[in-house]
Amino acid sequence: MATSRPLRLGFFTRLLDEGSAAERYRCATEQIQRAEAFGFDTAWVAQHHFHEAEGGLPAPLVFLAHVAARTSRIRLGTGVVTLPMEQPIRVAEDAAVLDILSGGRLELGVGSGGNPTAFAAFGLGNDDRRSVFEAHLATLRDALGGQALPGGDRIYPARPGLLDRIWFATFSVEGARAAGRLGTGLLLSRTQPRTADEPDATLADIQDPMVDAYLGALPVGVAPRILASRSVFVADSRAEALRHAEVGLRRFQARLAATGRGGPPDLPLADIIRRQDVHLGTPEEVLASLRADRVLDRATDLAVQVHSVDPPHALVLRSIELVATAVAPALGWRPAAPALRVA
Length: 343
Fold this sequence. Notes:
Layout lengths: L7 E6 L7 H17 L4 E4 L14 H9 L6 E8 L5 H14 L4 E6 L17 H16 L21 E4 L3 H10 L2 E4 L14 H15 L8 E9 L3 H21 L10 H7 L2 E4 L1 H9 L9 E5 L7 H15 L16
Parallel strand pairs: 1-2, 1-9, 2-3, 3-4, 4-5, 5-6, 6-7, 7-8, 7-9
Helix pairs in contact: 1-10, 2-3, 3-4, 5-6, 9-10
């Protein structure tokens, strides 16, 4: 572990359940409620514009306000707000209001990412993302902290406490170092592309140097916050897990292949599982797989997501239960509240 604090457990969703937007939002709400009932500490939602096969939610703060009214304890995170596409003062205002309405439960994850083709609709080029992100992040931090903005105004309500709950998502060592310098949390992805030079590198091979850079850049006295997002699907049998992986992961692989990424669409399923860094199977099999992930030795938070297996909603609920009762406790997690049996 990166600190002496106990591991925090999160549930992450890109809202990809089968059905209409309304059905996706209903399922995600129920999944977060189930996570809260089983003691999860946090729930995270991703933001995606335009491309419903990649993610179902363009307005994460709006959705989390809905979830906040239907939960009482679980912390609610954005994983992430794609900040270059947003007006940062408006993000600060919406985040401040949501944090007040939720009783101070917001975790504000931001990043520069997003599908490269989505930037044009916002009047941006993909090459602009890093510089715009840096400028928008500075404005967001000033606004949340109650600093005077251009023209002299300050946002109302200011919410300086959110400055200690900003998280920075990145795929690079330099990005992780920047997160450390700023004293934010570090959001690590469930998988990352391999280079041509190291096609068989493990996810830990890629992310360990990022953790090193982050920890090395943290200001003295600032506690590290390192969230490792991981693809985790726990089922009652390995056969059940593989049956759904055969559908979901092959669908995902076909989309990758169509864009010239990730190899051919007919890769053996075992190769897709390995390439996409998926932990699946029975509780015992998933636990063994996660224990082999060195990054978790220094993570303060583990966030599990079923993507890109994307099993049916009922099995997502079952996976949440099995993670909470049979996997996470063996990794050092303790539920934030007594786990509830939910019918």
